[in-house]
Design a protein that fits this description.
The protein has about 230 residues and is of the alpha+beta class. The protein is about 40% helix and about 25% strand. It contains 6 helices and 8 strands. About 25% of the residues are buried. InterPro entries: Lysozyme_Inhibitor_LprI, MliC, MliC_sf.
Amino acid sequence: MFKPLIPILAVATLMTACAPSQKAEAQNSASAAASDQASAAIAPLAQAAAATPSFDCAKATLKAETAVCADPRLAQLDVEVTRLYDLIGKAPGVDRAALQRQKGIWLNKRNTCATTDNIETCLLNVYAGRISDLRAGYPVARSDTAVSIGPIAWRCPGASDLSTTFINGETSMAYVKWADKSAVVTQSLSASGARYAITLPEGDYEFWTKGDETMWTAPGSVMMTCTEQKQ
């Protein structure tokens, strides 16, 4: 059973009965603890903002590259694509020349996002799609779960089946593919299970998984309930 990472909100409650002099000391300690907790909560956001891609942004000249440098989500995906390429390239029996040719074709596809109406959305799909393809095509990548997981297949009765690849990090994302379409949704807080969602000009996308089941909603379609296909 697939179990995605679920963010946990920790809440601490301090109850202290003190003498007047001790009470002031306890209040100071509590204030310091609250400050530390606030800093810890802000830290991931600061780290995400400082995320850098695998290439030198100071030397970026292509529009697609500058867009990656400006978006922590894209920088995170760029690092994972590069990591998977390195992992695959070091595996025994891999045709490295063919791998490099495929990478060149993919980079050209990435760069064409500069001509689209929404370069960020295009790049999210191109990067996440490449992660999914590399994991599906190479066993050494599929068995590695350091950052990304999947693709995982879901059977959706009466509708197109889904394939989902999860990318964990400062901004955890899921790449959902169905029929000839795809979308990248980002993880959101939920009371149970793991929920991923995004709002785009065409409407809202939501992927919510609980145990072996998931619910998927895309613009212009009804919610689908799907079951994980066991390997």
